[in-house]
Amino acid sequence: MDLNRLFGMLTRMFVRSAVNTGVDFAARRGKPDSKLTPEERRQARDAKETARKAQKLARLGRRFFR
């Protein structure tokens, strides 16, 4: 494996992790899990699920419009 492919792979892994962390943070509205009420936990879970669906649709759209 050449260095360009390795660098690209590591970059994609880092960006994917950062995006997932950002979505999780936004879904919790910046609060730690221990301080969320049951209602806020449900809202955070629903927000994460909606974000995952949006990511899947974006991937599908990119694949479809190539």
Question: Any overview of this molecule?
Answer:
- Helix 1 packs antiparallel against helix 2 (38-64).
- The protein is flat and about 50 Å long.
- The model has no long low-confidence stretch (mean pLDDT 89).
- It has helices spanning 3-27, 38-64.
- The chain is mainly alpha-helical.
List the SSEs and their pairings:
Blueprint: H1 3-27, H2 38-64
Helix pairs in contact: 1-2
Task: Tag the structure with descriptive keywords.
66 residues, mainly alpha
Total helical elements:
2
DSSP summary, beta strand count: 0
Using the CA coordinates, give the radius of gyration. Answer: 16 Å
Biggest β-sheet, characterized? none
Mean pLDDT over the residues: 89
H/E series, N to C? HH
Tell me the overall shape: flat
Low-confidence stretches: none
- Helix/strand/pairing category: mainly alpha
Q: Fraction of residues in helices?
A: over 70%
